[in-house]
Structures are given as C-alpha cells and as structure tokens.
Amino acid sequence: MADFQTSTHRAKWIFTPNELVEKYKVSNQRAIKMLKEYGSTRIEVSADGSLSYPEPQLDATKVEKRSHTKPLSIEDEQLMRVFYEQKIQEVCLAFGFPQKIQGTAIIYFKRFYLQWSVMEHHPKNIMLTCIYASCKIEENHVSAEELGKGIQQDHQVILNNEMLVLQSLGFDLIVYAPYRSIEGFVDDIEDFCQANDQLEMLKDLKETAKLEVDRILLTDAPLLFPPGQLALAALRRSNEVHGVLDFERYLGSIISRQQSMHTSSELIESLNLIYSLLVKLKMPSSDDMKPIDRKLRYCLDPSLQDDKKREKRSKHKSKKSSSEKHGLPSSTPS
Amino acid sequence: MGEGGGNSRNNNNNNSNRPAWLQQYDLIGKIGEGTYGLVFLAKIKSQPNRGKSIAIKKFKQSKDGDGVSPTAIREIMLLREINHENVVKLVNVHINSSDMSLYLAFDYAEHDLYEIIRHHREKVNQSINQYSVKSMLWQLLNGLNYLHSNWIIHRDLKPSNILVMGEGDEQGVVKIADFGLARIYQAPLKPLSENGVVVTIWYRAPELLLGAKHYTSAVDMWAVGCIFAELLTLKPLFQGVEVKATPNPFQLDQLDKIFKVLGHPTPEKWPTLVNLPHWQTDQQHIQGRKYENPGLYSVVHLSQKSPAYDLLSKMLEYDPRKRITAAQALEHEYFRIDPLPGRNALVPCQPGEKIVNYPARPVDTTTDFEGSTSVQPPQPVSSGNAMSGSGVPPMVAARPLPRNMPPMAGMQRMPGPGMSAYNLASQAAMGGGMNPGGIPMQRGAGGQPHQQQQLRRKDPGMGMPGYPPQKSRRF
C-alpha cells in the first residue's frame, strides 16, 4: 500500500515516548514476575507453534533459591534488542538482501518486543524469524532451510516461531521503511536545487542518508516517527557532511507545499528528537553483551544455576556446550 | 475468545475435532473449494452480531514445509490495510497452532457474479436487467479504483470473485474478493508463473498472454471488460481452451478467441507489441493467422454508438497503456445515462422492473470443518481463555502430562484445544498493550491431524457444457 496515511503502520504502530516506556516496563515486569513465581521466564515454542509456559514451582525452597536469579533490567533488554537488530543488518548484508528487507525485519523485531520481554522469547530466534517473515512479505522468498544454513542455525527454530511472530505483529505486515522516502526526497531535492550539475553530490547525499537510516533503525525512532520524518532526519545528517543544500530552507519548502498539519518548527523539533536518539544510541559489543547474556541464560533455564552450585567452575565449559545442544543461547551469538 | 470450551461441545454437530475458536460460530457447511483450500459458511452465536453469516476461508498448509502459506499471508496483509465498501471485509483471523493453518473470517456474501450469470442463463432464460448490470459494473469499478489508487493489482478478477451481498443492510452491494494473488505494485512484479501460480485464462489480458513480464493495473481492467460482456450476454466472452503445462505455457487458443472478436492487434495501434516475447517468437502462429470482420458489437449485441459499447471497447483496448483506467471508467457517459447505477444492484429502483430472486448459495453440509470425516473419538478439551485481561499470561490449571522435553526444568505443556483465535476486531487493544497471553499457547487433543478423506462436492458449475470446472471458485 502506498498510502501511509491510511495504513496500519500509522494507525497502530506509531507511539508516544511515554507509551513506549510503559510497554517496555510492562513486559519486563511481567517476565520478572514470572521468574519469581515460576523460577523461569522461558516460553517454549514447540514444533507445532504452540507455546508452553513454565510450570508453577511447587517446591517453595527451589523458588526461594531461584529467586536469586537476576532478571534483566529494562536497560539490559534495550541493549540486547539493539545488539540483535545490528545482527539483523549483518545477516541481511551477508545474504545480499535489498535494504527494505532489513528495514522491514527490524521493524517487525521492534514491534514484537513491544509485546514480549527478551526474557520470554530469545531474541536470536526472533531475529531469524523476523528476517524470514520479511523476505516472505517483500517477495524475496528464501526458504527457512536456506536461511538457517547460511548462518548455521537450526531452521526449525525459524518455522516454530513464525506464527508467534505474525500474531504478535497483529498481522500488520506492511511496513514503511524510510529507504523509499529517501529516494523520493532526493528526487524532490534535485528539483528544489535545480541541481543538474550536482548529480554526484546528490548521490553521495542519498548514500550517506541511507547509512544514517541504518543507524536510526536501531533506535526507538521508527516506533515514534513516521518514515518520512526518519528519512528527513537522515538526509539532514547527511547534508551536514556533504553540504549540498540549505536544509532549513528545503524543510520550509516542503511545509509550504504540503499544506501539512505540521508547522516548520514542529517538523524541526521531530528531526531534533530523532537526532538526539541517534546520539544516545549505544552500539553494544559482544563483550557488553556477555553479562546480560549470562543473566538471560539463567532466566531462561535456572537449572543452570543449580548446576553451577553443584559443579566446579572448571566444568563451565562442558555445561555450556550442553546448553547449546539444547538450543539455548550462547553468550556470543554468531 | 475461545470461551465456551470445557467439555461440553457444540451439540449442533457432534464433531470432536472442532477447534475451540469455532465454538463462537454455528457451522453450517462448506460453500467453496479451490487450490487455496476450503470455504465454510458459519453464523455468529452470540451478541452483538448473533446470527450474522460469516464465510470462513481455510488455507491448506503449505506443502513444501516452509511455514505459513505465503498466499494466506499476502491476502491477510493486504486485507488488513484495505477498507472499502466494495471490497470484502476481513473480520477475523483464526489460527490452528497444531498444523499452522490459517482461517480467515469474512462477512458472508450470498451471491456472486458467477452464480447470478448462471441463474439467468439456465433458470431465468433472460438477460440481467440494465440497472443491475450497470450497478454491479459501477461498484466493481469503484472497488477496483480504490485498490488501484492504493497500488494494489488484483490479478485474478473473474465472476466468481465478485461477490454480491444478500438480504440485509448491504443487500445488492458488490464486494471484490480473493486477494490471494493480489500484489502491491510499487516494486516490479514478478510474473505469476515464477510463483508457480495458474489462474483462469479467460479473463487474462492479451499482454500477459503474449508474455509481458510485468503486471500493471490494466490487466484488471481487461478482466472487467470480459466480465462486463459476460453480464450482458451471460456467456464468457473469450472462452479459450487452456493449455495445461508448466510453467506458464503459451495460450494460443485464448489469443485466437480474442483475435476472432477484436481483430488482429497491430504494432501501429499497439507500439510495444513488438517487444512482447510471444509476439516475436510465435510469429508463425500469431501473426500468420488472418482474422476477418472483427465484431465485438455483434457478439455483445450492442449498437456501436451506444455508451455501453464505447465503454466496453475501451476496456478491451489492446494496448494496456491506452486501456481505460478504473477512475476514467467511473466517469464514463454510460454511468450518467438512465438507468443510473445504484447501491442495491439486485433491486431496481424503478417500479415495474421485475425483481429476480437469486437462489441462496448451495451449502454442502456433509463435509466437516477439517474437510474430512472424523476418525477421532471425542476427547475432552479445556478452554483456552486466550484474551486474559491480566498482565501475566494466563496459566491454565495444569494437568499432569508426561514431559517430553526433559532438559527443560520447570516446563510443562499446556493441555487444551489446538486453536485459539486472534481477534482483529479487538485490535484497538493492541495499541494499549496487547496481552501476549492472547497468543495461542495450547496444543493438544483438539487439533490432532487426521486422515484426509476429502468429500469433494461437485461444483454446480461443472455440469455446464463448455464450462471448465471452476476449481478456484471463491465462496
């Protein structure tokens, strides 16, 4: 659908900052509560797509012991999401998928974790399923097997989670990534500048802006602003590098042409907010992830902690490999 | 959702394999069947829409073991964004988590153009009145204009996909249905053949028959032209014999039927013709034949000067770039002269006009919901209570079941029905924080796969000489 104005994207998936904070809080607290009451947060998705929740812990002492398992904080979850969103970009790049596949997959991933905590569904699995779903929707069909093979992951995990992901997205599957908007704005800028001799510069402007969009997609901005504004924010950043046009004047011209509901200052404020989200964006490294990932492993499977108490630390290695055998996350996702 | 479960089952139809969500409906029977799966008629059991008819479209599982059917996904994703009086309304999506199949619930339409045309041809022996033809055509174009302006091409328009509402507040309103092949065309579209899809050739545009690689909205307008002619004459306009071979064989007979009526296309009138693959490679066949005295007007019994003929011939323009668009067609003079088109296409406003009572859609009550006979003994099923209001995913009182995932501590499978519903109508709740508990989480006795013993009902259209089986009739 080309009409963003009447889309489910606009109607249901653009939030206020407070709404986002609240959503992240709710799912984080739900997972923490589950950890306390049931000793584990893991919701198992089986081959038929059904979910199993941890069973209530009848043995009070066990629960007592396990209540020492540290849950992930909201900030941990945030970092972990960004980490796996980066992974989505890496995987899509490795497969040579078009940019929109990557954009759609990341937006799916973000929407999914508005409903769930990373403690409930491991982001590694969800990341793969989001890429898979994005390929299906964008008519770039890749079989789950192919996808799994390419990154040495069990493709059954992708298929098991597919229905869960589609449902969590409310089947609102048409999303508007900002890449297309950039194309449109750059064409428009070409007219605006009457820049026949600047085609090279416009190309640079566009390419840098697309790289900026890649980074913007890692922030909360896609859940807060429409794709057009994300694209403009990226172009403004890009223009700071290339100095192709007077951007304020260009924004003014857009406003005047569109008889939009926004005033120029409102638009600039939005772009500034997107900019500040970009500045605040922390790109977690694998090392940053280690302590969070350890916490997550214990949340998902507290028996690891029980084992730890029993076993010597020297056995850590073999335990880790056995956990991997069961499809549990490893601390350094590929 | 999923309420009314427990051990008491729907006693209207004692099938134990019914999914839990189905209990919000009274299942009446099967009303259609196609390559995509089956369509059932059901009625809503409880208020506020008690007794309202719903068509439930069941998609077959994809065979290749590659997850949820892409056709189903595509149809849902488009329908989620669409909202127009002349487009069928998706009211619900249900999921069977035991076999990953999807069920789409639509507002039910009692009639479709295929049945209406057939009724006139076989029972009434009289053409459809001008008011009805014009009203149906106008509404079809109105819906299509909406789709096209939203960059959606339908690609499979044919009389059986054009529904008409029966009695009720929407009586006689036309609804375009079946978006399984529809596409957004902001991106270049792959040819259908690449997706391994076969559609009826009678309504296929000449550029596609000649091997055009990409679809434009003009292919839908060609189909509308064919449907318009069929509404007038009660006979398919171009009844070619389909060559069945894969992938996407050259349909010479279909082109032959078109040329016989419309004459030979020429590069003068259709400049891009020379670029079409089959035009070049099949010179001998296509360009070699001679077609005399084209006479569309005589086939459809219209005066060459009539606005109806003018509109029809503009829809059947060879060059897709010159073919009339839906928006232009709505402005055509044909719709400005008496009788003017109306909202209730079935009941003419003018007094004295005879009202045709179309028969209700035939319902096959012998096929059960799974499309097979039940082979499973009744089993108790616990209720899913999927849409719990609390922030914590609902925990159904666990029954002891053998653990089949030994390494997982503290895990247990939830017993329960294999299905849960996902109510699109309650989507408003999603913005405010959809409860993940609304996700189906049960599997169990209810949705066991069982032997497929298809009781295929012969389609009423099949008996008609010259009519190929309407394999892909949509409800």
Counting DSSP H or I runs of 4 or more residues, the number of helices of chain B is 12
Say how many strands of chain A there are. Answer: 2
Q: How many independent structural domains of chain B? A: 2
Low-confidence stretches of chain B are: 1-15, 187-198, 372-475
Looking at CATH, the homologous superfamily of the domain at 178-280 in chain A is Cyclin-like
Would you write up a description of this structure?
The complex is a heterodimer of chains A (334) and B (475). Chain A is an all-alpha fold and 334 residues long. Chain A has a domain at 178-280: Orthogonal Bundle (Cyclin A, domain 1). Chain A has helices spanning 8-12, 17-38, 60-66, 74-95, 99-115, 123-137, 144-150, 155-168, 178-193, 199-216, 221-224, 227-242, 247-258, 264-280, 286-300, 303-310, 316-325, and strands at 44-45, 51-52. In chain A, strands 1-2 form a two-stranded antiparallel sheet. In chain A, β1 (44-45) and β2 (51-52) form a beta hairpin. The longest helix of chain A is centred in the first third of the chain and has 22 residues, at 17-38. In chain A, 45% of the residues are buried. Residues 310-334 of chain A have low confidence and may be disordered. With 475 residues, chain B is α+β, with helices and mostly antiparallel strands. Chain B folds into 2 domains: 1-110 and 361-394 and 414-475, Phosphorylase Kinase, domain 1; 111-359, Transferase(Phosphotransferase) domain 1 (Transferase(Phosphotransferase), domain 1, Orthogonal Bundle), CATH 1.10.510.10. Helices cover 23% and strands 12% of the residues of chain B. A 6-stranded antiparallel sheet of chain B has the order 1-2-3-5-4-11, covered by helices on one side. In chain B, β2 (37-44) and β3 (53-59) form a beta hairpin. In chain B, α5 (218-233) crosses α10. The relative contact order of chain B is 0.17. Mean pLDDT of chain B is 73; it is low at 1-15, 187-198 and 372-475. At the A-B interface, α2, β2, α6 and α8 of A face α1 and β10 of B.
